[in-house]
């Protein structure tokens, strides 16, 4: 049973000054923001309208650390610097410590185990990566945007982890178990279609492929690389309809909760149970 703390009911959005925040959020859209909106509008309300801050979970911290090291690894290849695993192990250690400054993470006594599994997964990726050592990236951790005003939509913004030579867009995922191959495209369609649009708008070219590189933090680490063809017109249309839903919902201040099994790990569970809207 999940205990719910006793406290006053959360004020519904119609009575909050957050109305202006909602209007501001209609000017732009990102894959992460849209994904959360589609998953649970009330969670979106807590995170983006009220901007209720929560410390990262242990898994989020591990993911941020690994992403930071991979960014430096990609930049090193872009600069044609020689590879040395010791360098990236030291960088992993400094990132792991540095990202905790001023942040209280509830490790539940398992920080050492989480750190070890994250490093094993990263080390496995760096040694088994399908990216050749002499392949120079086209772009690394680049911030891009696409003007969708001609479609009556807000500006799409995002950050591409890596664009490989020839236009292969790569996104890194740090996970605790192997993903389902059958569900990959469906689960990540919003993000991948956004990346496709961002790349095309920035370069004037169609991407060669969309890749997901899953670093799996199992006892024996795994690397699962999934390559998908360029985004289709059908996926683009589907994304535009989802963004229209986002715009209309924000305009109505529609922050209805979406209860389900996913609620068990939600950082806003108690706020949701107290919500009076």
Plain-language structure description:
The structure is a single chain. The chain is 45% helix and 16% strand. It is α/β, with parallel strands linked by helices. The protein has one domain: Lambda Exonuclease, Chain A. Helix 4 runs parallel beside helix 6 (111-128). The longest helix is centred in the N-terminal third of the chain and has 21 residues, at 58-78. The protein is globular and about 55 Å long.
The run of helices and strands is HEHHHHHEEEHEEHH
Low-confidence stretches: 1-15
Mean pLDDT comes to 91
Distance between the termini: 24 Å
How does the helix and strand content classify structurally?
Answer: alpha/beta
Quaternary state, please?
Answer: single chain
Helical content band: 40-55%
CATH architecture identity: Alpha-Beta Complex
What's the CATH first level? Alpha Beta
Major β-sheet annotation: 6 strands, mixed
What sort of overall outline do the alpha carbons produce when their principal axes are compared? Answer: globular
Beta-strand residue fraction: 15-25%
Tally of extended strands? 6
Total domain modules: 1
Number of helices: 9
What's this model, at a glance?
With 277 residues, the chain is an alpha/beta fold.
Give the SSE map.
Layout: H1 19-25, E1 28-30, H2 31-39, H3 41-49, H4 58-78, H5 85-98, H6 111-128, E2 139-146, E3 155-164, E4 168-175, H7 184-203, E5 209-216, E6 222-228, H8 233-252, H9 269-274
Parallel strand pairs: 1-3, 4-5
Antiparallel strand pairs: 2-3, 3-4, 5-6
Helix pairs in contact: 2-3, 2-7, 4-5, 4-6, 5-6
